[in-house]
Amino acid sequence: MKRVLIIAIFFLIGLGVVSFSFTLWKELSIFPFDKISLTSDTSSSYFKDRFGGLYWGFLTLSMEYRKINADKSSFIVLSDHYAEDNFQVFYYGEVLSGADTSSFKVVPQNYSYVLNRQHIYEEVNDSNILKDSEKEGEFAFDQYYIYFNENRIASNKYNHVINFATNILIADADILVGDLNFGGGLNVISFPELDTNTFHPYTDTFWADKNSVYCFSQNKKKFYPLSNLNRASFKYYKTKVDNQFSHVFGDGNNFYYYYGDCLQTTL
After folding, report:
1. Higher confidence at residue 242 or residue 73?
2. Which of 190, 217, 248 finishes a domain?
3. What is residue 132's predicted lDDT score, i.e. its pLDDT?
């Protein structure tokens, strides 16, 4: 009898250990090999497990997972960072408050210009678009707002929205600049004289269209033309190594660098 009792106790203990381990596996998600990535990003992604649980994973020293409280039957991944179900939109696995699920869309990143390692825009080709290391996030919109990452950056009053360049959106005649270091991700530029059909970004501060060269001044919180520059001759000048102003632009006669505003200099 005593032997039977001991066996029964060990059986119950074993059953408890198995049950507890199963709970850890299913609910606490301590087994990363159980996760199936739903996106292409290798540093962060949406995941599911074999039980249908949904997670946001992010790479630190190892991949860590945060469970998402989402409707499993309607959950879809929209991009590496955005997802939604029938009731809410998610960014990095967190609920994007107030987003309209019925009209929410991620803006396709089929842009024309990309930032290179010198933080200067160059036209996209097959190789440099894969090295777009300066990209700070994604644009999205619903029927009410334009978003940059988790930030609402403008009311959506636009008919045509395109991701024109790294961190730059053209919405009708306005330019929206996604910037994590200024204005909480918000720079909206409405400048009637700017011709968006011929708009060319040189850096995030020197821009041009077919008529003029423009400066985007964070100090003055304004966007204005540089009237003493010849647009046809305007270009980037590679300066001497000992010149502290490494990004110098000009037309051969007048030259500018940027330090919170566009300031004249010499080569």
Report:
1. 73
2. 190
3. 67
What is the pLDDT averaged over residues 109-118?
86
Question: CA dihedral defined by 74, 78, 81, 84, rounded to 10 degrees?
Answer: -30
Q: Which tops the pLDDT comparison, 39 or 131?
A: 39
How many C-alpha atoms does 249 have within 13 Å on its Cβ side? 25
Show the CA angle centred on residue 191, arms to residues 189 and 193, nearest 5°. Answer: 150
Q: Are residues 82 and 95 in the same domain?
A: yes
Final residue of a domain: which of 165, 190, 215? 190
Instruction: Give 185-233 pLDDT, tens digit per residue.
Output: 455 666 777 888 899 999 888 999 999 999 988 787 778 899 999 999 9
Query: How many domains does the chain contain in total?
Result: 2
Exposure string over 12-22, b if 16+ CB within 10 A, otherwise e: eeeeeeeeeee
Q: Domain limits at 70?
A: 29-100
- pLDDT for residue 24 is more than 60: no
Same domain, 109 and 65: no
Edge-to-edge strands of the sheet including 44-48? 36-37, 44-48, 54-59, 63-67
More confident residue, 31 or 118: 118
The side-by-side arrangement of strands in the sheet containing 255-258 is: 235-238, 247-250, 255-258, 262-265
Residue 78 CA: distances (Å) to CA of 65, 91, 107, 165, 267: 19, 10, 10, 20, 47
Model-wide pTM > 0.70: yes
In a domain, 259, yes or no: no
Are 177 and 108 in the same domain? yes
- Give pLDDT tens digits for 79-106: 989 999 999 999 999 999 999 999 999 9
Q: Give yes or no: residues 120 and 87 share one domain.
A: no
Using alpha carbons only, give the angle 91, 95, 96 rounded to the nearest 5 degrees: 65
